[in-house]
Write a structure and sequence with these properties.
Elements: H1 4-22, H2 38-43, E1 55-58, E2 74-77, H3 80-96, H4 99-115, H5 117-128, H6 132-159, E3 164-171, E4 174-186, E5 189-193, H7 199-212, E6 217-220, H8 227-242, E7 250-252, H9 262-267, E8 271-277, H10 280-289, E9 294-298, E10 304-307, H11 313-325, E11 337-341, E12 345-347, E13 350-352, H12 354-369, H13 372-378, H14 385-401, E14 403-406, E15 425-430, H15 434-437, E16 445-451, H16 454-468, E17 472-476, H17 480-493, E18 496-499, H18 532-536, E19 539-547
Parallel strand pairs: 5-6, 5-8, 6-7, 8-9, 10-11, 10-17, 11-16, 15-16, 17-18
Antiparallel strand pairs: 1-2, 3-4, 4-19, 12-13, 14-15
C-alpha cells in the first residue's frame, strides 16, 4: 500500500501536531458557507444508499424537531454479530498497514466528510435540533477539527515508539548484543456510541483515534439522530474502498428506541474499545460492564457560574444569557447554576442586589429568546419531547420552592412554524434548595442561587463537581486572589474554569487543538478530548528480541 494519501495530507498532519504542541488557534478547514438543503431533501422518504450488511427498515424514531415530520429514511439494520464479523474480517490488512498509510486514509476521510458539509449540516439540524449555523460549525468544521486533532495526537504517540533498536550490555566479562523489534498492536473492534443532540463532536475524535491506531470501528448512532452519522460513515467507507481496504472496517449499528443494541455491543466478547457519550447513569453502566474493553466516556455534569464582582455588569449578563440560550442549553458545557451573594454583587457602578441581577439576567435572556429570527439562530429547536416534560416538572418544583423569574416559553420559528422550541426556564432559589440544582437538568434550565458569599459558592459548586460531575465552570471577579483560589479548587474538582469572559465568543466554546474537553477526574466522564490517554490506550506495544552476535569474552 502506497503512502500517496499521507503525502497529500502531510502538511495538514504536521500543522495539527504543531497546534497540539503549542495549543494555539488553528483550523484545518475554512469558515463554512451557506448550505443548500437540496441534497438532504433528496434523501428524505427513501432508502439510504449504502453497501453495508443488513436489511432495510424505516427509522421511525427519526423525526425532525423543526417540522415534526418523520424523515422517512430506511437504513440497513444488521445484528451485532454480523457487524462484528464484518469488522473482524476487514481488520488484518488495516492493522498491518503502516501508520502513515492509516493517517493518510483517515485525513482523506475528514476531507471527504467536509466536502459534504451542506448535506451533513441539514441532516444534523433536522435530527438534533441545532440551528443551521451551529450544524455547520459546531457539528461541522469544529467537530472535524476534533477528529483531526485525535489523528494528530495518535500519530504522534505512535511515532514515539521506534520500530527497532540495537541493544548491548556487559554481563561480567561478556557483552550481550540484541536486535529488538517493536510492534504497534491495535486492541481490536471499537464501538462508538453517539448521543442524540451533539453526536459529531464526540464521534469524530473517537472514530479517528481508533481507526488511525489500527482498529475497526462500529458507530452506534442514537435512534432519533441517525442520518448525520450514516452520511459520515458512508463517506469513510467509500474512502476505504478507493484506498484498497475493506469497507467493513467501519460499520453502522442502527437500532431503535424499542429494541436497543448498545448493551449487546458493549458486552460483545470481541469488542475491545468503547466510546460512549450520554447520560451519567448509562455511562456508569458502560464503565462497569465494558471489560475487557477499555471504555472512554463523556456524560453529564453540573456547570456553575460564580459571581464575585464585576467591573461592568451588562456585558456579563449578555454573555451569560447567550450561553443559557445557545442551542437551548442542550450542550454538555452549558451553565446551569449561577451563584450570587445575597448581600449583593459589587460592580463598577455600585452594589447590585440579587433581585437586580436576576431581573437583569432575565431581561438579557428575553432579548434573545423572544425575538424570532435571533432565537432561531441561537436557540434552535428542542431535540426530544422529554426535555419539554422536564421543563414543566422543574418549573413546578421551582415555583413551589423559590421564584420563577422566567417561564420556559416557546418562540415561533420564522421558517418552521411547527418547530419544537423553548426559551430558558430561569428560577431563583436558595443554596439550601440543593436537591433542585445538584444534578444536571438537561435543557434550557438555569438557577440563580442565593448564597452567603462567593467563597460559599465556590465550596458548594466544586463539591457538586466532585460528587455529581462538571465539565466546565465560569467565574466573574475583579479580585485576582479569588480567581486564583477558584482555579485551584476547580482543578482539584476536575473541571475547567473560564473567568471574566464577555464579548462575541460563547462562554462554552471549546477550541480543538487548544482546550482539553473533560478531564476524567470527576463523574462527568473518564476521558479527555484530546490528551495522550485518549489515544495511547487504543494500541499496545509488543516486542521481539534476537541475539545480534555471539557473546564476546
Amino acid at each position: 500500500m502506497t503512502t500517496d494519501l499521507f503525502d497529500k495530507h502531510r502538511t495538514t498532519l504536521e500543522r495539527a501536531i504543531e497546534a497540539c504542541r503549542t495549543r494555539e488557534s488553528w483550523s484545518a478547514y475554512g469558515e463554512p458557507s451557506a448550505a443548500s438543503p437540496a441534497a438532504f431533501e433528496a434523501q428524505l422518504g427513501r432508502p439510504f444508499e449504502d453497501d453495508g450488511p443488513g436489511v432495510q427498515a424505516v427509522q421511525d424514531d427519526e423525526i425532525s424537531p423543526y417540522t415534526g415530520e418523520p424523515l422517512g429514511i430506511s437504513y440497513l439494520r444488521a445484528d451485532v454479530d454480523r457487524l462484528v464479523a464484518a469488522a473482524t474480517q476487514a481488520w488484518p490488512r488495516w492493522r498491518e498497514a503502516d501508520p502513515r498509510v492509516r493517517a493518510g486514509v483517515c485525513l482523506e476521510m475528514c476531507e471527504r466528510i467536509h466536502a459534504h458539509a451542506a448535506e451533513l449540516a441539514h441532516a444534523t439540524m433536522h435530527t438534533t435540533g441545532q440551528s443551521l449555523g451551529m450544524s455547520l460549525t459546531g457539528s461541522g468544521t469544529n467537530a472535524l477539527d476534533r477528529g483531526v486533532e485525535a489523528i494528530a495526537q495518535a500519530f504522534a504517540a505512535m511515532s514515539r515508539v521506534p520500530g527497532s533498536a540495537r541493544w548491548a550490555r556487559a554481563f561480567g566479562p561478556s557483552t550481550v548484543e540484541l536486535t529488538k523489534r517493536y510492534r504497534l498492536v491495535p486492541r481490536g473492534v471499537a464501538v462508538v456510541v453517539a448521543c442524540a443532540s451533539f453526536p459529531a463532536w464526540n464521534v469524530y475524535p473517537a472514530l479517528f483515534a481508533s481507526l488511525v491506531t489500527g482498529n475497526p470501528v462500529i458507530v452506534k448512532p442514537h435512534p432519533s439522530s441517525v442520518l448525520q452519522m450514516a452520511l459520515a460513515v458512508r463517506a469513510c467507507r467509500r474512502v476505504l474502498t478507493a484506498s484498497g481496504f475493506d469497507p467493513g472496517l467501519i460499520g453502522l449499528a442502527v437500532d431503535t428506541t424499542a429494541e436497543p443494541v448498545t448493551k449487546l455491543l458493549v458486552r460483545h466478547p470481541a469488542v475491545r474499545i468503547v466510546d460512549f457519550t450520554g447520560s451519567a447513569a448509562f455511562g456508569s453502566w458502560v464503565e462497569a460492564n465494558a471489560f475487557p474493553a477499555v471504555a472512554y466516556t463523556e456524560t453529564s455534569g453540573v456547570n456553575s457560574v460564580l459571581m464575585h464582582s464585576a467591573g461592568e455588569l451588562q456585558p456579563v449578563l449578555r454573555a451569560l444569557a447567550g450561553s443559557l440560550c445557545l442551542f437551548s442549553a442542550q450542550m454538555c458545557t452549558s451553565p446551569q447554576n449561577i451563584y450570587v451573594p445575597r448581600g449583593g454583587l459589587p460592580t463598577g457602578d455600585g452594589l447590585v442586589s440579587v433581585e437586580e441581577f436576576a431581573e437583569g439576567l432575565a431581561d438579557a435572556v428575553r432579548a434573545v429568546s423572544t425575538v424570532p429570527r435571533r432565537a432561531a439562530a441561537v436557540l434552535g429547536a428542542i431535540q426530544s419531547p422529554a426535555t419539554l416534560t422536564l421543563l414543566d416538572e422543574v418549573g413546578k418544583q421551582a415555583a413551589a420552592r423559590g421564584r420563577v423569574l422566567l417561564d420556559a416559553q416557546p418562540y415561533e420559528h420564522p421558517r418552521h412554524p411547527e418547530a419544537r422550541t423553548s426559551g430558558p426556564l430561569l428560577a431563583r432559589v436558595g443554596i439550601d434548595d440543593h436537591d433542585l440544582f445538584a444534578a444536571e437538568r438537561f435543557g434550557p434550565v438555569a438557577f440563580v442561587i442565593d448564597c452567603d458569599d462567593a467563597d460559599q459558592a465556590l465550596a458548594r459548586a466544586t463539591q457538586d463537581a466532585r460528587e455529581h460531575g462538571a465539565i466546565t465552570a465560569f467565574a466573574y471577579a475583579t479580585d485576582d486572589a479569588y480567581l486564583d483560589r477558584a482555579e485551584n479548587a476547580y482543578a482539584l474538582a476536575g473541571a475547567a474554569l473560564t473567568s471574566n469572559l464577555t464579548g462575541p465568543m460563547p462562554l462554552n466554546f471549546s477550541a480543538a487543538y487548544s482546550d482539553y474537553h473533560v478531564t476524567g477526574l470527576n463523574p462527568a466522564g473518564n476521558a479527555s478530548l484530546t490528551d495522550d490517554s485518549f489515544v495511547a490506550g487504543r494500541f499496545r506495544v509488543t516486542q521481539s528480541r534476537r541475539a545480534a552476535a555471539a557473546s564476546r569474552e
